[in-house]
TrEMBL record:
Stretches assigned to the Radical SAM core domain: 57-290
Function of the molecule: Radical SAM enzyme that catalyzes the addition of the adenosyl radical to the double bond of 3-[(1-carboxyvinyl)oxy]benzoate, leading to aminodeoxyfutalosine (AFL), a key intermediate in the formation of menaquinone (MK, vitamin K2) from chorismate.
Cofactor: how and how many bound: Binds 1 [4Fe-4S] cluster. The cluster is coordinated with 3 cysteines and an exchangeable S-adenosyl-L-methionine.
Pathways per UniProt: Quinol/quinone metabolism; menaquinone biosynthesis
Organism per entry: Roseimaritima multifibrata
Keyword 4Fe-4S: yes
Catalysed reactions, semicolon-separated: 3-[(1-carboxyvinyl)-oxy]benzoate + S-adenosyl-L-methionine + H2O = 6-amino-6-deoxyfutalosine + hydrogencarbonate + L-methionine + H(+)
Superkingdom classification of source: Bacteria
Protein name (database record): Aminodeoxyfutalosine synthase
Keywords: 4Fe-4S, Iron, Iron-sulfur, Menaquinone biosynthesis, Metal-binding, S-adenosyl-L-methionine, Transferase
Amino acid sequence: MNQTELNARFREIRDKVESEERLTMDDGLFLEDPQVPLQEVGALANLVRERKNGNLGYYNINTHLNPTNVCVYRCRFCAFRSDLRDPKGYAMTDEQILARGKEATENGCTEMHIVGGLHHQRPYEWYRNLISLLNSNYPQIDLKAWTAVEINWFEFQTKKSVQWVLEDMREAGLGSMPGGGAEIFHPEIRDQLCEHKANTHAWLDIHRTAHEIGLRTNCTMLYGHLEKAYHRIDHLMRLRELQDQTGGFQVFIPLAFHPENTKLDHLKKPSAIMDLRTMAVSRLMLDNIQHIKAYWIMLGLGTAQTALQYGADDIDGTVRHELIYHDAGATTPEFLSVDQIRHLISETGRKPVERDTTYHEVHRDPNHFATWTRGEPVDKISVSAK
Ligand code: V47
């Protein structure tokens, strides 16, 4: 394509975005082309970002819990997993889990993000009990737990339906589901990354069922490894199609691959340029998902800040005890203080807003930081006030 053709094609897409018309697979592929200036794609994504979320930059106060790293699967991108008998392998005790709940409550956390390995010797009841233990002792914390891959494993363990597992977990205290395990849906890539675990159909079906019973969930895409632009756009379009049917996804998180200590350690980590383009293209393709998250743990602080001008409106949380990315060579801090995360957002010119897991405003007691109440859904704040 020569420069004149390139400009004309870009104008066509800009017109569509301005008139809120949906982009096609071909549009997405064009925006992925390195010949199309990144700043222009970013500016277009920023238009959508500001239309949907104004000038706000969301964050939450959260912590992670990875109850075990022992896993039956051997995904090639994972540095966290362990074999049962490896000295690195662990499974947390009830006391350790409760101590995390106590620490989270004392720090004013509104969310615990719980994911881990599929342990050969731990029955379904172990996974259920830990949710119930945390929920009964620390009921205010939203337990954002289990990826679709884990739910698929629980189905296998219990021989019950997805709906049964999700309802049973909800009864134990599950509040919502994180978006992990999606990787890349296209079988050309998924079969090379993780051929044994929950396939694309299962991942989408589990999220569909969660939405149907009223659970909100997140969605992700792992990029920067074996996939090509076509696989990324295909992935986004499959998420968009499900969202059209259910409306249950609250946020999309593009996850940059970290190769250290994985079976793909010969690959280079994606560049900041790729991170920003993926962020912007995701914002433009996913016209029906309200929020796009720049997960600072994996992007690094500088790129996460910049991403707030490239389509993202959320930066995840203060985070504590994150292992999946740090085991894979992430050099970002272990956690940020509330002042640091607010500064990170406000330095970009955005207004920091604390939200809870399901995107309600959080109101804190000015005299006692750890005491908080849930306010209105943030999406009800009118765009003009944003
Ligand atoms: O499914 C694993 C990815 C995911 C590596 O829902 C890796 O709010 C890069 O899903 N390099 C788990 N990525 C993390 C996740 C997540 C993170 C933050 C917020 C939310 C949310 C969800 O991490 C896995 C996989 O796609 N992953 N290993 C690696 N070496």
